[in-house]
Amino acid sequence: MAVIRSKSCSITRTDKWISIEAEEVWYGIYFSRKGHVIHAPRDVTPEWIGLNVRLALQTSESFTPIDGSSVDREARIAMEDASNERRLAFWDDITASYSYKNRDVAWKKFDLVAASWRFDSTNDIELLSTKSSRGGGHSAWPRNRNEGRVFSVSIDAPDRHIGETVLKAFAQCEGPGKSTEPLFP
Predict the structure, then answer these.
(1) What is the four-CA torsion angle of 133, 151, 25, 48, rounded to 10 degrees?
(2) Could you report the average pLDDT of every consecutive run of 10 residues in the chain (185 residues)?
C-alpha cells in the first residue's frame, strides 16, 4: 500500500508577531532542520504571508517511505535532536525579539493554522484552523464541527491570495489562546 506523502508548515500568530515554520514529516511532524522558518511583527501584508508559506512548504521535507516501510531508527533519533535544537533556538529568538520574559511565556496564547500539501498528488494547500486549550496546546476540530474551518488554496496562487486564505483560516481559530482579530479581514 502506497503512502500519501505530504509537506507541511505551521503558521502561528499572536497580537505581537507571526511565524511560519517548515516541518519535516517522518510518520509524524517535526520542526524542520533546514527548511524555511521566519517570524516578523504581526502587521505583515498578505503578500508576505503567502510568499513565506509557499517557501516553507517547498522546503519542507517528507521522509515517510513511499512503500509504507519503517524509517531508520538511528536517523530519526538524530533528526529529532537536530530538530529540537533548531526549534528551541528559533523560539529563543522570538522570546528576545518580542520582549517575552522567557520561552514558556512566548509559547502560550497564539493562534495556529496548520498547512499541508500532498505534493505528489495535488497543487492544493490545505489550511486547518485550530482550537487552543488553556494549557497552550492546539488541536483540530471534531469532524462534525470542521465545516468552515478548513480552507484550500493552490500552491501556484499569487502570494496575496495564499496570504488572504491564511488570514481567513486565522479568523476561524478559537479557544483561550486566541490572539486577536485579523488585521486584513
Answers:
(1) -90
(2) 83 93 92 97 97 98 84 90 97 96 85 93 92 55 63 97 96 65 41
pTM above 0.85, yes or no: yes
Query: What CA–CA distances, in Å, run from 98 to 55, 84, 102, 164?
Result: 23, 21, 10, 24
Identify the bridge partners of residue 21 per DSSP, sorted by sequence position: 10, 37
At 62, list the grid cell: 517528507
Ramachandran area for residue 136 (φ above 0: left; ψ -120 to 50: alpha; else beta): left
Q: How far apart are CA 10 and CA 127, in angstroms?
A: 10
User: How many residues would you count in the chain?
Assistant: 185
